[in-house]
Design brief:
Layout: E1 2-6, H1 11-23, E2 26-31, E3 45-48, H2 53-63, E4 67-70, H3 84-104, E5 109-115, H4 130-148, E6 152-158, E7 160-162, H5 171-181, E8 184-187, E9 193-194, E10 196-198, H6 199-213, E11 224-227, E12 234-235, H7 236-247, E13 252-255, H8 284-292
Parallel strand pairs: 1-2, 1-4, 2-3, 4-5, 5-6, 6-11, 7-10, 8-13
Antiparallel strand pairs: 9-12
Helix pairs in contact: 1-6, 2-3, 3-4, 7-8
Length: about 300
């Protein structure tokens, strides 16, 4: 298949690009002029976002993509007034341009990416922050196109992710660095539940979503949102013990060193529908060892 990916230079995007190439797919990526593409494999076609919507529509008509996987987003845990325009531009406006061009050109499928932070206290919708609100806004826009076009449109709502090559300042990288440096970390009391998945399991979810969206039963998936909820959820305290065991390191944490954040997610969304047929193949401990043991 010929597949276009947005957000391909990010952690999840880079892994998805490689898996699709390994699968034999024809992969293109859509990037802004400011994007760094040095790590993109040479087999990938790089398309720069044009200045006008008409030009974008023409690209889609000319390229005749089978589908789009939309990963691009701007994540901010909290925002300042100066961040508002960037959040809306990246998480609402950009995606709307893409999905309009995709559906106008008649692509077979469009897979959107949502987040568990759209569901504070596991509510059907309650944004944890403005980022979550912008993600929901675009998901609502996707629903319009799902109901008014023939493109199969579905959303995968992700939790935390990790794996090899992850340079983001995320939890496991923080812990790994603390072990190497012999630091004691100050953290919250640690009773919040963490849902975190190894990257290969997450990519399996995207590939399965593509299968569903191109199957004889594809119409039953359009307009729906699915999760990739881990069966190995645990408190932050227990996760720290597993991490230390997996990397055979001495992880020193002062739990309760500072309070929980405002609108801290104590129990990540647990009422969503898991993507049919998906389950993790790599356990959490094995994923930790693959990513951090002897690194």
């Amino acid at each position: 298949m010929k597949i276009l990916i947005t957000g391909a230079t990010g952690f999840i995007g880079q892994h998805l690009v490689q898996r699709l190439l390994d699968h034999g797919d024809d992969v293109s990526i859509l990037v802004r002029t400011t994007s760094q593409t040095d790590t993109i494999p040479k087999e990938v076609s790089i398309i720069t976002l044009p200045e006008t919507q008409n030009e974008l529509e023409e690209i889609f008509k000319r390229e005749r993509f089978d589908g789009v996987v939309h990963l691009a987003s701007l994540y901010l845990m909290s925002h300042t007034p100066e961040d508002i325009e960037s959040l809306i531009d990246s998480n609402v406006k950009f995606g709307t341009k893409i999905i309009n061009a995709a559906t106008t050109a008649g692509v077979t499928f469009f897979i959107n990416t949502g987040s568990f932070v759209q569901h504070f206290e596991s509510r059907p919708y309650s944004p944890t922050n403005l980022y979550a609100a912008t993600k929901q806004a675009f998901q609502d826009i996707c629903q319009y196109y799902a109901e008014t076009t023939n493109t199969i449109i579905l959303t995968l709502e992700l939790y935390n992710t990790f794996g090899p090559g992850d340079t983001r300042p995320k939890l496991f990288n923080l812990w790994s660095n603390a072990i190497k440096e012999g630091k004691t970390l100050e953290m919250s009391p640690g009773e919040q539940i963490i849902d975190i998945s190894y990257i290969d399991n997450v990519i399996d979810g995207y590939l399965l979503a593509i299968e569903h969206a191109t199957s004889n039963n594809a119409k039953s998936f359009t307009g729906h949102s699915y999760t990739l909820m881990s069966p190995e959820r645990m408190t932050l305290k227990k996760l720290a013990k597993m991490f230390a065991k997996g990397v055979k390191g001495d992880l020193k944490i002062n739990f309760g060193g500072f309070p929980y954040r405002d609108r801290e997610t104590m129990i990540p969304m647990d009422k969503g529908e898991i993507l049919p047929g998906w389950s993790p193949k790599v356990s959490l401990l094995e994923g930790i060892q693959r990513s951090f043991l002897n690194k």
